[in-house]
Write a structure and sequence with these properties.
Length: 286
């Protein structure tokens, strides 16, 4: 199967953003990026070298058939890619959009809320990313330190992106029970769950069944054991809440599109998965 319409990639980062993304051959970060690529099924574990430059990154996006890639930074005690850096990456390219990141544990509530206002209203970033499970200390997503972030995003009509997945220091913090509580307490907040709370696939599907403001981005974990339940759910009720992403540089763009098309999604829901859901959540024109 092929797909020739718009594709929005909800999670993409060029390698040049830092060693964690494989920016520097010969480093531990570069080898870790290769390892993770192999772990999630990449056929070429050094494909990301093309994104050592911004031009190479954008060329890869265009040639893969992706219409727009959403670039997200990090704000955690162990890894920071600032919102100003994300703005500099995306500002001159219609193929790119940026998501801000904040860490209320480190910076406090006032500075965090000020940064949400600055990064979205001044820099034009179109959502906010948080990573409670990678904090100091790691916490559940509904920890009280993050509640004012959710409240601010709900009031500003900004989608909140919540990082999850099996690389959290404590896998308990990936359990999406906390996502359900956030969805219940902030019913008008558009919640996007990066990595789809893998390996808690059944659980996040149950949360999304109950709360329509929960959107799931399984990205590279969609190709892991147990993830076919996402396909089954999307072919049923979840087709307006599942969104496509490559998780580049940890999976190749074009291969991920091709692999996605081979998973068994019904053809009539592909527009939703590839671009309509993202357009709605992010209020994007492509």
């Amino acid at each position: 199967m092929s797909y020739k319409k718009e594709i929005i990639d909800l999670r993409s980062r060029p390698a040049f953003l830092g060693e964690f993304y494989g920016s520097t051959p010969g480093t531990a970060g570069y080898e870790a990026a290769k390892w993770l690529n192999r772990r999630v099924g990449s056929k070429n574990d050094e494909h990301f070298r093309r994104s050592f430059t911004l031009d190479g990154f954008v060329d890869d996006i265009k040639e893969s058939g992706i219409t727009k890639a959403v670039v997200v930074g990090r704000d955690t005690p162990s890894l920071t890619v600032s919102n100003d850096v994300i703005y500099d990456v995306v500002k001159n390219h219609k193929e790119l959009a940026g998501i801000a990141s904040v860490d209320p544990q480190t910076h406090g509530f006032k500075a965090t809320l000020d940064e949400i206002e600055r990064s979205t209203k001044q820099l034009g970033l179109i959502g906010v990313n948080v990573e409670p499970g990678f904090g100091n200390p790691p916490v559940h997503a509904d920890d009280r330190d993050f509640l004012e972030v959710y409240d601010a995003c709900e009031k500003l009509d900004l989608p909140i992106f919540i990082m999850s997945g099996p690389t959290t220091p404590n896998l308990e913090h990936t359990n999406p029970v906390a996502i359900g509580r956030i969805a219940r307490d902030f019913p008008n907040l558009k919640i996007v769950v990066y990595h789809g709370s893998y390996p808690f696939v059944n659980e996040i599907i149950g949360v999304a069944f109950r709360y329509e403001n929960v959107n799931i981005v399984p990205d590279m974990y969609l190709f892991q054991p147990g993830s076919k339940l996402f396909v089954e759910a999307a072919n049923s009720f979840l087709n307006e809440q599942l969104l496509f992403a490559t998780s580049y540089p940890f999976r190749p763009m074009k291969q991920t599109i091709d692999d996605f098309l081979d998973l068994g999604f019904k053809e009539e829901i592909l527009d939703n998965l590839f671009h309509r859901n993202a357009q709605r959540v992010l209020k994007l024109d492509v």
